[in-house]
Design goal:
Elements: H1 28-38, E1 104-111, H2 113-117, E2 125-134, E3 139-144, E4 150-153, E5 157-160, H3 163-171, H4 176-189, E6 195-199, H5 201-210, E7 214-218, E8 222-224, E9 233-235, E10 238-242, H6 244-252, H7 264-283, H8 285-292, H9 295-302, E11 306-308, H10 312-323, E12 330-334, E13 340-347, E14 350-357, H11 359-370, H12 383-390, E15 393-398, H13 405-415, E16 419-425, E17 442-445, H14 450-459, E18 468-470, E19 480-484
Helix pairs in contact: 1-7, 1-10, 3-4, 5-6, 5-9, 6-7, 12-14
Length: about 500
């Protein structure tokens, strides 16, 4: 009997055609949470979570303003400086689709609220965190980069790393702030980054409030200043239940006067702590099912404030993987004061506090989190071989109306090395996910098997993600159920 829990894509068919935009938030936990909830999200007119075809109405257009850049006498663009004239360029294309097995690294960007507050058209990045996930070893890692790190921003020269986002937005460069921030971090750390994700602060608050707040173990008394006026709060040592506003205040606190003795280093550690608390809340056994009922509201709250170049298809597959990575397999790290030195820089008469990196020390941390041998893709072999090595347990159900199709298809899959453990008709395996004779073939996924999913999507010529049902159920006797529909004419 096909195990049943919940249909994570049951709203997709009622949705309107989406528009183009970009992804995710101020931390890796938010990525995990949002990816999981994407399964229940429906497309709407102003869809922004993932880049998909469609032209949004004028009311959905995001505003990016700013001016061009100026150059010094040697002709090098000066970071932060502006000039008259606007540079226009088309948006860059999406990165190549994820192969389902290679290491994935995502740059998470949170913008500086003070820049929005003062009306600055091109905000700087307030937070930069790298999330990496390795499907082969089922491990993950987080690395935080201080906002004042002194680096070479491509095309703009040396400046604080948080200016990369603003420089690109002000200059209307292809890909905007996320793309230049990605290139800057890639050059600085020497690792490839596949995706970017940016979230605004209000969206971050709404995310935490929607899941009912988070519990964080705070080591010392910290004074937090949530967005808005006259709401300063003191958090005491021990377990604190934080609303979205308090969690954001805790994640942003960076001054000694607030009790954050190590400045940006402690702040980065607090941000990672918040991220893992979000992960724990979302994935807690008693909470996950109840949160599913909140998914439509969560999507409505998040879609306008999250931008990413992560495609919906890749987000679905990452969600399968992320849920199966245990906490003990998540490595965390912060570039601290043993890896950099305080300094100053005179910028047009303004003395800036900067952090000068020690490259060798930082490289040691990068190797610890990413692995010295993981700069190349982890997956080897063709898709058929990887599918065989995965040994996904597959059940084939005949809903085509053609006698013997389950047997014929099962025999073909077995000849390709697939681990087919059972077959039958729809009457043998009744389920709410399909009618007795479904129009289109669907697959129901109970466990994270990215190779088998990719293989089947290609072979069965899937044209929409609504043909994939995510029903996480580790106790199910099968990993994937294939319900053959009228569109399946038989093996090639």
């Amino acid at each position: 009997m096909v195990a049943k829990k919940f249909n994570l894509l049951n709203n997709i068919q009622s949705l309107k055609r989406p528009s183009i935009a970009q992804f995710i938030w101020m931390g890796a936990g938010l990525i995990i949470a949002v990816i999981l909830f994407i399964f229940l999200s429906g497309f709407v007119t102003c869809w922004r979570l993932t880049a998909l075809p469609g032209i949004p109405p004028a009311s959905c257009t995001s505003v990016t303003g700013g001016t061009g850049t100026t150059t010094n006498p040697e002709g090098t663009p000066i970071a932060g400086a502006t000039a008259t004239g606007i540079i226009s360029a088309p948006a860059i294309e999406l990165p190549p689709p994820w192969d389902g097995a290679s290491r994935v690294t995502i740059l998470i960007i949170g913008l500086d609220y003070r820049d929005w507050e003062t009306g600055q058209s091109a905000p700087r990045s307030d937070t930069m965190i790298l999330l990496t996930i390795d499907p082969v070893s089922k491990t993950a890692g987080m690395l935080s980069i201080p906002r004042d790190m002194w680096v070479n921003i491509p095309g703009f020269g040396y400046f604080k790393i948080n200016n990369a986002y603003a420089d690109a937005e002000a200059s209307h460069l292809p890909g905007g702030g996320p793309e230049l921030a990605k290139k800057t971090v890639e050059n600085f750390l020497g690792i490839p980054i596949q995706y970017t994700a940016q979230v605004d602060f209000q969206t971050f608050e709404k995310m935490i409030d929607t899941i009912g707040g988070i519990d964080v173990n705070i080591s010392t008394k910290i004074i937090v200043d949530p967005l808005g006026q006259h709401n300063t709060t003191t958090l005491k040592p021990g377990i604190n239940h934080l609303t979205g506003a308090l969690a954001l205040g805790y994640a942003r606190a960076r001054d000694v006067s607030q009790g954050v003795l190590m400045g940006d280093v402690d702040r980065a550690a607090h941000q990672q702590q918040v991220i893992l608390a979000i992960r724990d809340k979302v994935l807690a056994p008693g909470n996950f099912l109840s949160l599913m009922s909140e998914a439509p509201a969560l999507y409505n709250e998040l879609s306008g404030g999250i931008n990413t170049n992560l495609s919906l298809n890749d987000a679905l597959r990452l969600a399968v993987l992320a849920k199966d990575i245990p906490l003990e397999n998540i490595q965390t790290g912060v570039i601290d004061y043993t890896m950099m030195q305080d300094g100053t820089f005179n910028y047009n008469g303004q003395i800036l506090d900067i952090l000068r990196p020690y490259p060798d020390k930082i490289r040691e941390l990068v190797d610890k989190i990413f692995g010295s041998g993981t700069m190349q893709p982890m997956a080897t072999g063709d898709l058929n071989q990887k599918m065989q090595d995965e040994v996904a347990r597959v059940v084939v159900i005949n809903g085509t109306g053609i006698a013997g199709m389950a047997q014929t298809t099962s025999d073909y899959f077995k000849s390709q090395g697939m681990n087919v453990i059972a077959k039958g008709n729809v009457s043998d395996y009744p389920d709410k996910y399909y009618s007795p004779f479904p129009n289109r073939t669907i697959i129901i996924v109970h466990a994270g098997k990215p190779y088998a999913m990719q293989y089947l999507m290609s072979l069965l010529k899937f044209t929409t993600v609504s043909q994939i049902v995510m029903d996480f159920n580790p106790s199910a006797p099968e990993d994937i159920v294939i319900a053959l529909g009228h569109d399946w004419g038989g093996p090639p």
